[in-house]
Design a protein that fits this description.
The complex is a heterodimer of chains A (about 650) and B (about 240). Chain A has about 650 residues and is mostly helical. Chain A has helices spanning about 1-25, 30-45, 100, 105-110, 115-120, 140-145, 155-165, 190, 195-200, 205, 220-230, 245-250, 250-270, 295-305, 305-310, 325-335, 355-365, 410-415, 435-445, 470-480, 500-505, 510-515, 535-550, 565-575, 600, 605-615, 615-620, 630-640, and strands at about 60, 65-70, 275, 280, 585, 590. Helices cover about 40% and strands about 0% of the residues of chain A. In chain A, the strands form three sheets. A two-stranded antiparallel sheet of chain A has the order 1-2. A two-stranded antiparallel sheet of chain A has the order 3-4. The two termini of chain B are about 35 Å apart. Chain B has a single domain, classed as Cytochrome Bc1 Complex, Chain C (Up-down Bundle), CATH 1.20.810.10. Chain B is an all-alpha fold.
């Protein structure tokens, strides 16, 4: 009986000890150690830093429905004295949003409720959103920032740009993006030759390193079938004009003269502003370096004559070339832009069922997603929608046999770099992104989150303006593809200048002269505005419209022009404000800003005045400093500049 | 000391609680059991055979003990837990990360629940193998079966409350299985359980009420009947 009691007593004590483990663990929580260490660390600093009261600290963000306890250990986030302290005490580097207002996990992800390290970074079990690696941080900006350019988020902006430019929209549905212009394939059989097409399909970057066309990793059989299928489309919606017969009968000397004329016009028209030649030059259009080995001269002749007739929507201007000039340019291209290394594919007899098989391939790889061809539209089966890919749960992802880190960022990056890594039956082509580009795209995709953000926190994109100029001006703008480089009233691609206030800025005679012989205003910029060889009446239509529409009456202003004011302005220009630091007059001055030699013939006085008063209000982001000039000084400088003719 | 004890046992308070003397004679021993609330669960006389530990393995008593542990820890957990879709999972996280000994409470409750299901089942097997379900104890066997079902249901309804993926799909699958009962009965049961056609806020509240009120109260009622019968039949 006594032994039984002893056993009972021993067991009771044992139970008590076991029960004591829990309060002990509670007492020795991880975060307490960090806070105690923080207090000893800050006590040693020369600056006075307020010690932390031992206890759990948290930020409750009601509007985002988050409780973040990260600040329990990250105590010194706003303490400038801790800039070089070890983690978790280091000062937060650059804070775009106040932690008190937004918390931590809305940007960093991880488990905000946790008070233990491994759990808080979300690497423990049962947490879908582990902490974002530093390279992918900017993905979180996109949760709220839906605008085009997010300030302070270069990686995100690059990623979005790449998604737009790579035309991911051809296959994937992604909200907030628009499809880019891609060549129509109608008549492709009369445009390109078979050798080129086969090489192109097998390896597009081999022909044009910067092409948007990805590598579909086609087998030889697939390439041949697809090439046969495409080459069977020989009819253009508009018939090709024949190349004038007299070219064939021309003498060698006449031909050489034509080539020379073509070469001159090719340079004058500044084709390389948009078209790179073997990788050098512009970036908005196709590489012309080997065009003669690709396109039929008859097609080239017709296309340059009127691009939109064959490629509706192409942002290429219709140059006002004469027939001789057109012939010259084609002849020049034929003589210059040849790919001497082009491989000739082995002889091949088409499969009798090539059309059906080719169409199946065309649909399988969703070529119709980007390229229009006959009546064949977009393939029925599309790639997955990516609008909320950033919210995808890990258990929804098939990593296949891949050995990569099982996280969403690494999945997306790997998929972009090696599209068929997870399963060889996948159809996504290889775009040849660099690591940096793949990361940027992954960042933009991760930002496509299904996170519920309250309306008042969302930053929406500016509504795209649908400025459609009408009448004669409208026709010219369409014909010359002005929107390809210029922005007008919020529409267009900003390669060159925004023209919305052009007539308030520049004088009529200067604009007219510029259309005849375009030049670059700044010596540091390459000359890009092409000479479109416009005729007098066309220039008049353009400038008339600008004078009535691209003008703001509020920018009009009369400025005194008496000698005293001018002398005064001259003094201000050179002495007081040292404008010559950036602007050149004559041979003196810097070259950061445009030279002001002939400012009096180029600019309008009202513009100069308002520009001096507040440059950023006229061109947001310009580096011209806002010196807060009083009206009298701005008037004086304007008066002086207007004398420079 | 001895004088103090003597004084204490003679006091009005002591005697109002313990209405008998020290259990030194058969009569006072019987009285000790008879007048004590906790001991009155035992019959006044037990056959020697059934006192043998290996006859019962103490499984019934263990089940009852675990039930008490579960009620206590469950009551404490109720202080922190709110049965709403918005808060349930976060409250779970708070128990884990912030509440003093919160994780310990959860673990006690969880492991206690698992153990109770197992031990109730073993208890049933023991009753079966010792033939204790035979007349005149057949009604108590039936009550025992009801208690077993209640234990299982308690375990199942508690499954949904953490409101994680396991809970969600566990209940989705479970209620869909119920729907397989023919003649539209299954659909009705599932609808009543979920308070709708899918697992959502209504289901969470219903499972919470079932888990914390309806099922424990019925368990207590049936346990009362069960124990009373055991006592009448001379069990331990």
């Amino acid at each position: 009986m006594n032994t039984l009691r002893k056993v009972f007593a021993a067991v009771a004590v044992l139970f008590l000890i076991v029960l004591a483990v829990s309060p002990l663990k509670d007492f020795l929580r991880e975060w307490k150690r960090y806070q105690v260490k923080y207090n000893t660390l800050t006590a040693d600093l020369p600056q006075r830093v307020k010690p932390v009261e031992i206890g759990i600290r948290q930020i409750w963000v009601e509007k985002l429905d988050r409780v973040d306890r990260c600040v329990t250990c990250h105590v010194g986030l706003k303490e400038p004295a801790l800039k070089n302290a070890p983690e978790p005490y280091r000062t937060h580097p650059q804070m775009f949003h106040d932690t008190e207002e937004f918390g931590c996990t809305i940007c960093h992800e991880g488990q905000g409720a946790a008070t233990e390290y491994m759990e808080s970074i979300g690497k423990g079990k049962y947490w879908d959103r582990p902490i974002l690696p530093r390279a992918f941080m900017e993905a979180s900006c996109a949760k709220c920032h839906k605008e085009q350019e997010v300030p302070g988020a270069p990686v995100l902006n690059l990623g979005r740009k790449l998604i737009r430019e790579s035309n991911c929209l051809g296959c994937h549905k992604i909200e907030g993006y628009v499809k880019q212009w891609v060549p129509v394939l109608n008549g492709v059989g009369s445009k390109v030759n078979r050798a080129w097409l086969v090489n192109w399909l097998k390896n597009p970057a081999g022909y044009a390193p910067k092409t948007r066309m990805p590598d579909f990793m086609l087998s030889n059989d697939e390439t041949n079938t697809l090439a046969d299928f495409l080459l069977s489309f020989k009819e253009f919606p508009a018939p090709l004009d024949p190349i004038p017969a007299r070219l064939a009968s021309a003498t060698e000397a006449a031909k050489a003269k034509l080539v020379e004329l073509g070469s001159t016009r090719f340079r004058e028209a500044r084709c390389i502003s948009c078209h790179p030649i073997n990788g050098k030059g512009g970036y908005v259009a196709t590489d012309l370096g080997k065009i003669a080995s690709k396109a039929d001269p008859r097609w080239l002749y017709n296309y340059i004559k009127n691009p939109k007739r064959f490629q509706p929507g192409v942002p290429m201007p219709r140059y006002r070339f004469s027939e001789d000039e057109l012939l010259g340019i084609v002849a020049y291209m034929q003589s210059e832009f040849v790919d001497y290394d082009m491989e000739q594919p082995p002889a091949h007899t088409p499969d009798p069922g090539f059309f059906e098989k080719g169409r199946a391939l065309f649909n399988k790889y969703s070529c119709g997603g980007c390229h229009e061809l006959g009546g064949i539209g977009r393939a029925e089966v599309m790639a997955p929608e990516l609008t909320s890919i950033g919210g995808k749960k890990l258990y929804e992802i098939d990593f296949g046999k891949s050995k990569i880190d099982q996280t969403l960022p690494s999945y997306l990056t790997t998929k972009l770099l090696q599209p068929r890594e997870f399963s060889s039956s996948m159809k996504m082509p290889k775009f040849g992104f660099s690591d940096e580009q793949a990361t940027a795209i992954a960042v933009a995709l991760l930002g496509n989150d299904d996170e519920k953000i309250p309306d008042e926190l969302l930053v929406r994109p500016a509504p795209s303006a649908a400025f459609v100029p009408q009448g004669g001006f409208g026709k010219l703008v369409d014909d010359l593809a002005c929107f390809g480089c210029h922005v007008m009233n919020g529409r267009g691609r900003l390669v060159a200048t925004d023209l919305s206030l052009e007539a308030s800025q520049a004088q009529r005679s200067w604009i007219e002269g510029y259309f005849k012989i375009p030049y670059s205003l700044r010596p540091v910029l390459t000359e890009r505005m092409p000479n479109l060889f416009l005729q007098g009446p066309e220039i008049k239509t353009l400038v008339d419209f600008m004078e009535t529409s691209f003008i703001a009456d509020s920018l009009d202003r009369d400025v005194p022009s008496d000698p005293v004011t001018i002398a005064n302005g001259r003094g201000l220009y050179f002495e007081r404000y040292g404008c010559q630091g950036c602007h050149q007059i004559g041979t003196k001055g810097g070259y950061v800003g445009p030279p002001l030699d002939k400012a009096g013939t180029r600019l309008k006085r009202g513009w100069i005045f308002h520009w001096l008063k507040n440059p950023q209000s006229l061109k947001p982001g310009t580096i011209e400093p806002n010196n807060n000039l009083p009206d009298a000084e701005a008037e004086a400088i304007t008066a002086y500049l207007m004398t420079l003719k | 000391m001895r004088a103090f004890l003597k004084e204490l046992t003679r006091s009005q308070v002591w005697r109002s609680i313990f209405r008998h003397g020290l259990p030194l004679s058969n009569r006072t021993r019987a009285e000790a059991v008879f007048y004590n609330f906790f001991l009155h669960l035992h019959p006044t006389k037990v056959r020697k055979r059934s006192i043998k530990y290996t006859y019962t393995w103490g499984l019934g008593g263990l089940s009852a003990g675990l039930f008490i542990v579960l009620v206590l820890t469950g009551a404490l957990l109720m202080l922190y837990y709110r049965p709403s879709v918005q808060q349930a999972y976060n409250d779970m996280k708070d128990l884990q990360f912030v509440v003093s000994s919160g994780q310990f409470l959860r673990n006690m409750h969880r492991w206690g629940a698992h153990a109770m299901v197992a031990i109730v089942f073993l208890h049933m097997m023991r009753v079966f193998y010792t033939g204790s379900y035979r007349p005149p104890k057949e009604f108590n066997w039936v009550v025992g079966v009801v208690l077993f079902v209640i234990s299982i249901l308690l375990s199942y309804t508690g499954y949904l409350l953490p409101w994680d993926q396991l809970a969600y799909w566990g209940i989705s699958v479970g209620t869909n299985m119920v729907r397989a009962v023919p003649f539209g009965i299954g659909e009705n049961i599932s609808f009543v359980l979920l308070g709708g056609h899918a697992v959502g806020e209504n289901a969470l509240v219903r499972f919470y009420v079932l888990h914390c009120f309806i099922l424990p109260v019925s368990a207590v009622l049936f346990m009362g009947i069960h124990f009373w019968r055991v006592r009448k039949d001379g069990g331990v």
